[in-house]
Amino acid sequence: MQEIKEKYFEGERALYGLSNTIVKNVTFGEGESPLKETKNLEIKATIFKYKYPLWYSNNLSITDTTFETMSRNGIWYTNNISIKNSNLKASKLFRRCKNITLDHVFFSDAEETMWTCEDITIKNTEINGEYFGKDSSNIYMENVRVMGNYVFDGAKNIVCKNCSFVSKDAFWNCKNVTLINCQIDGEYLS
Fold first, then answer.
1. Strands in the chain per DSSP E
2. Is 71 left (phi over 0), alpha (psi -120 to 50) or beta?
3. What's the CA gap between 106 and 99, in Å, rounded?
4. 50-65 pLDDT per residue, tens
5. How far, in Å, CA of 134 to CA of 173, rounded?
6. CB-based contacts of 159, cutoff 8 Å, min separation 6
7. 119: closest CA among 94, 146, 143?
8. Distance from CA of residue 4 to its chain's centroid?
9. How many other C-beta atoms can be found within 10 angstroms of the C-beta atom of residue 108?
10. Which one-letter DSSP state was computed for residue 170?
11. pLDDT for the residue numbered 47
């Protein structure tokens, strides 16, 4: 694999179509879609500062990375993505993605995040934001804390272990939900 490290990129589609690459200690400043239509990337200790960083991508491993507030609508139409030890500050981060694995991730603004996604595993994570997980399916969560109303509206096939939810109108219009050793604090359930 080639390696791109300790660089700063600006401008639209800065590394469009990149494949088979390690991206390390890189900052993507202003400029939309810096890594659009990419595949087979290892992204480490990187900062995304602007919109649409990872659209139509495949096979991504991301660690120790920050998605700043303006990197909203960040990960759409992307498959086979793993994110660990990262800070996700932007809203609307995941849409129509498949095979998502998150571990030790902090969502400071998960508003309208993880919509219409499939095959999701989330562990050791904190999620803050309204309408998380809308219309998503095949979700497994363990040791996750969710704070935000309307979590998982319309979702199906959900298993949660050792999780806590502070959410009004949680699990509305859902199918096949299993909660094991979980805590729910909210006005309405299911």
1. 2-5, 8-9, 19-24, 27-28, 39-44, 47-48, 54-55, 58-63, 66-67, 75-76, 79-88, 94-95, 98-107, 118-128, 137-147, 156-161, 164-166, 175-180, 183-185
2. alpha
3. 19
4. 999 999 999 999 999 9
5. 10
6. 139, 140, 141, 178, 180
7. 94
8. 23
9. 15
10. B
11. 98
**37 close to 16: Cβ distance less than 8 angstroms:** yes
CB 51 within 8 A of CB 29: no
Is the Cβ–Cβ distance between 62 and 81 less than 8 Å?
yes
- Does residue 186 surpass a pLDDT of 90? no
Q: Is 88 left (phi over 0), alpha (psi -120 to 50) or beta?
A: beta
What's phi and psi for 3, nearest 5 deg?
-135, 135
DSSP 172: T
Mind listing the pLDDT tens digit for each residue in 115-162? 999 999 999 999 999 999 999 999 999 999 999 999 999 999 999 999
Q: Could you tell me the two tokens for 116?
A: 């219409």
Q: Write the single-letter amino acid at 30.
A: E
Among 146, 84, 158, CA closest to 117: 158
Please give the model's pTM, rounded to 2 decimal places.
0.96
